[in-house]
Design goal:
heterodimer, A: alpha+beta, 60s Ribosomal Protein L30, Chain: A, five-stranded mixed beta sheet, four-stranded mixed beta sheet, B: alpha/beta, fumarase, five-stranded mixed beta barrel, two-stranded antiparallel ribbon, 7 helices, globular
Chain lengths: ~325, ~220
């Protein structure tokens, strides 16, 4: 049994790490980008950001004054059990969110949408969001906190099969342009694209693609992985860099996640995880062990399963099998209108 | 590459000092600045509350910011990171605010349009300074010498309150408008617009249209 004390202590520490320490994958990629950036102002911006990460760690101070909207993703192995049950877990996460807001400190961003009531602790109706996932094996739970900026860089559109890949590209570029100007999306960002699902799951997929997959990861479907690479390059070919200044780096990486959708539609969402890509992860075991990491490892083969019963992949690689009824090339999508 | 020019600037700057600023200069600030955004504007301009500072004598620098800060039990303040919020949303209040407070430096994220600059920044002798990144919150935090006080916390909450900060070489900020009303972001957008058609080549508009304001990606959205 995993104790609520352990959950609350670990959650508090994760809130601190997420706000202060830029994850290694993003940090490494931004350093690489700064070496090849040639726009004068964009270069200055990237250098300042890299310096900012160091100062935040040295001073144990939030890297960005807008500390985003803290939220939680909880992943549980099938054999995991929590002292007091899930209501106790949720209370522990809400306490940790409130206490970290005071301790770090974080900006108390969460307010009532109409009355603008601010509890000054990032807790309120539906806040922080707590979402769940499960894995077939294990007695651990993963706590993942993401403090995503809340205002710019995200959009949704119902596309249709006849829009095809070119329509997807168009909406992707529209989103980059709309929010990239003046740097509103605080690029270079990890762009997450959700394709398919229902409207709400389409948004969730895209948000998770940007926040729960690390830079350098690929979708296991090789054709989607190719699209990810192509979209990254396409975004960086606009000529817009940090803060919307002339530059070469707008997209640090592009992650695409898909879900089965209505046969007549092709919903799409775009999300941007910014220069302060705040996420932190820990795995908690019943014996009290806690392992910290920065890769949420959310999208496992189990999360992406497309069968009725869970059929573990035969080898250690994630399933890349393509069922016979799916389209065999992106262009084919257009023929099914 | 030499990089942009660096300038130290007072938060109660002289007309000459402002006139000397060029688009793209990097600025570090000294003196008092205050945060004011929709909460403060609404309270001061719409509800006509008395502004609890002597402006612009004490400060002519309005930061569009909510800090990550706390008020301790003993009444002291801890401020870690400070980062700007997007300014374009405040243009309905800014003309009146400038007139009332004599603000000369508007500091925020993303700038305003050149129309805003020409219509009421230039006539008020004011320029726009943009934060960098965005999100050099920790760097800006090092420029805080002291949090002097916070006004209207009870009425507006921590995020919307009027924080008064004494800064010492706080920065970097980038000069995003000048006394001719020129706009750095629009200048950059115009350069980028030349590439946009190439990036869009082969794509097509969505089958199902949306009611909207523009379908030209080289347009500004603010």
């Amino acid at each position: 049994m995993i104790t609520t004390t352990l959950i609350e202590q670990t959650a508090l520490s994760l809130m601190d790490k997420a706000a202060i320490e830029i994850p290694a994958d993003y940090h490494h990629a931004l350093k690489k980008a700064s070496r090849t950036e040639d726009g004068e102002l964009a270069t200055f911006v990237l250098k300042a950001m890299l310096e900012n990460y160091e100062v935040a760690k040295e001073d144990r101070c939030a890297m960005c004054g807008d500390t985003g909207v803290p939220r939680w993703f909880v992943k549980m192995g099938n054999e995991a059990s929590v002292e007091g049950g899930m209501v106790a877990l949720e209370a522990a996460l809400r306490r940790a969110t409130a206490n970290a807001t005071h301790n770090v400190p974080l900006r108390p961003n969460r307010v009532h949408p109409l009355w603008r009531t601010d509890h000054n602790n990032n807790v309120g109706i539906g806040a922080p969001e707590i979402e769940y996932g499960f894995e077939p094996e294990g007695d651990w739970i993963d706590l993942i906190t993401v403090h995503k900026g809340g205002l710019f860089g995200t959009d949704y559109r119902m596309l249709f099969p006849s829009d095809g890949i070119q329509g997807i590209k168009r909406f992707y570029l529209d989103s980059l342009m709309a929010f990239g100007k003046r740097g509103l999306s605080c690029q270079p960002a990890i762009i997450g694209i959700g394709l398919g699902g229902s409207k709400d799951t389409c948004m969730s997929l895209g948000k998770r693609a940007s926040t729960l997959r690390v830079v350098g990861s690929s979708n296991p479907d090789p054709r989607i992985a190719d699209l990810e690479a192509e979209f990254k390059e396409l975004g960086n070919s606009i000529g817009m860099g940090a803060m919307g200044f002339v530059g070469k780096h707008m997209v640090i990486d592009c992650n695409i996640e898909v879900g089965y959708c209505h046969t007549g539609g092709m919903p799409m969402s775009v999300h941007a995880f910014c220069l302060s890509s705040r996420r932190a992860v820990a795995r908690l075991y019943p014996d009290g062990r806690v392992e910290y990491r920065t890769d949420p490892d959310w999208f496992t083969a189990y999360q992406r399963r497309d069968t009725i019963e869970w059929e573990p992949p035969v080898d250690n690689n994630q399933s890349t099998e393509i069922p016979a009824h799916t389209v065999d090339s992106p262009q084919t999508v257009e023929n099914h209108q | 590459m030499s990089g942009p020019r660096e300038v130290r600037l007072s938060t109660t700057p002289t007309t000459e000092a402002i006139a000397d600023l060029r688009l793209g200069d990097v600025v570090y600030l000294d003196g008092l600045l205050y945060t004011a955004r929709e909460g403060v504007y609404t309270r001061a301009l719409e509800q006509q509350a008395n502004i609890p500072m002597d402006l612009p004598t004490e400060s002519a620098a309005n930061f569009h910011c909510s800090p990550a800060a706390r008020i301790n039990d003993d009444g002291s303040y801890d401020m870690g990171a400070v980062t700007a919020t997007a300014s374009f949303r405040f243009n309905k209040w800014l003309p009146q605010w400038m007139e009332k407070t004599g603000a000369k430096l508007i500091i925020g994220k993303g700038g305003m349009s050149s129309k805003d600059y020409k219509n009421y920044f230039v006539p008020n002798g004011a320029v726009y300074l943009s934060t960098v990144g965005y999100g050099t919150g920790a760097l800006l935090g090092r420029g805080i010498e002291k949090v002097e006080t916070v006004h209207w916390n009870k009425e507006l909450g921590l995020a919307q309150a009027m924080w008064v900060i004494r800064c010492n070489k706080m920065g970097p900020f980038i000069v995003a408008s000048d006394l001719n009303g020129e706009c750095l972001f629009e200048r950059e957008n115009a350069k980028i617009a030349r590439n946009v058609a190439r990036a869009y080549e082969g794509t097509k508009p969505a089958i199902l249209k949306r009611y909207g304001e523009t379908d030209d990606p080289t347009d500004e959205v603010i």
